[in-house]
Design a protein that fits this description.
The protein is α/β, with parallel strands linked by helices and 283 residues long. It is 41% helix and 13% strand. The structure holds 3-methyl-2-oxobutanoic acid (KIV).
Length: 283
């Protein structure tokens, strides 16, 4: 079994960590065979799976369903982190522990929590219950109503100081890694160089100890928009559209199904006599 602390060893050895999001069984079966180190059932599923305008609508029940599906596909082959959704931990330490526990029971190895100082008691409580926590600083999408949208964070001196302080606090409290989202490369570099635990960047430049991408973005499977920080490795939207159009045309032109796709009756069944009854409506 992979332990969360093993990612600190990756950092010591200068071995970069890769993480992608995953939300369903079929994708997790594929990713179980991949070289990626960590899978994240991100609350980004609210946007890419459910079509919500933000992650705020995602419930703990949705996170549990998707964590169960992904965990079934992985069967223990990868380290699985699951996001604590909006209002599953902010309300009390008790809520935080119980909801983190639901994700662990669903098959996650760790949970990810957004925020630093303002949620530190909740993070401490989760860690005290022996549930590993991955921190998340910079753009924390559950706070968009305060931060004013999906935009670059830690751009003022005050905010840079705050993120440095928060990252040290998360390390001190026992988080095993920290996601840094949408922060200037220089800021992420200083944090990465000054922490023992690994940083995993998304839109945080080249010097983090690892990188994470939303799988739908990197596979071109989310047609609504393409953020600047994403590298698109394939354009699945085009491939899906072409394939489905080919199918529709094959059906229209009688090309599908072909002989290889059909099932035939066993030899010895007398279809003729049944057919007569059928034609004469004699059943
Ligand atoms: O929900 C998510 O997919 C995330 C990643 C962007 C890190 O939190």
């Amino acid at each position: 079994m992979i332990s969360p602390r093993s990612f600190e060893l990756y950092k010591q050895k200068g071995q970069k960590i890769s993480m992608v999001t995953c939300y369903d069984y079929s994708t997790s079966r594929i990713l179980a065979k991949s070289d990626v180190d960590i899978l994240l059932v991100g609350d980004s599923l609210g946007m890419v799976i459910y079509g919500y305008s933000s992650t705020l609508q995602v419930s703990i029940e949705q996170m549990v369903y998707h964590t169960e599906a992904v965990a079934r596909g992985l069967n223990g082959s990868k380290f699985l982190v699951s996001d604590m959704p909006f209002l599953s931990y902010q309300t009390s330490e008790r809520d935080a522990v119980l909801n983190a526990g639901l994700l662990i029971k669903a098959g996650a190895n760790a949970v990810k929590v957004e925020g630093g100082k303002r949620v530190i008691e909740k993070i401490r409580a989760i860690i005290s219950a022996d549930i590993p926590v991955m921190g998340h600083l910079g753009l924390t999408p559950q706070s968009i109503n305060v931060t004013g949208g999906f935009k670059l964070q830690a751009t003022s001196e005050k905010d840079v100081e705050k993120i440095f302080e928060d990252s040290l606090l998360l390390e001190r409290e026992g988080c095993f890694a920290i996601v840094l989202e949408l922060v200037p490369e220089e800021v992420a570099k200083v944090i990465s160089e000054n922490l023992k635990i690994p940083t995993i960047g998304i839109g945080a430049g080249r010097f983090c100890d690892g990188q994470v991408l939303v799988i739908n973005d990197m596979l071109g499977y989310f047609p609504d928009f393409q953020p600047k920080h994403v590298k698109r490795y394939v354009n699945l939207s085009d491939q899906i559209l072409n394939s489905v159009n080919n199918f529709a045309n094959d059906v229209k032109n009688g090309v599908f199904p072909g002989k290889e796709n059909v099932f035939n009756l066993q030899e010895g069944i007398n279809l003729e006599s049944i057919l007569k009854k059928f034609v004469n409506r004699n059943f």
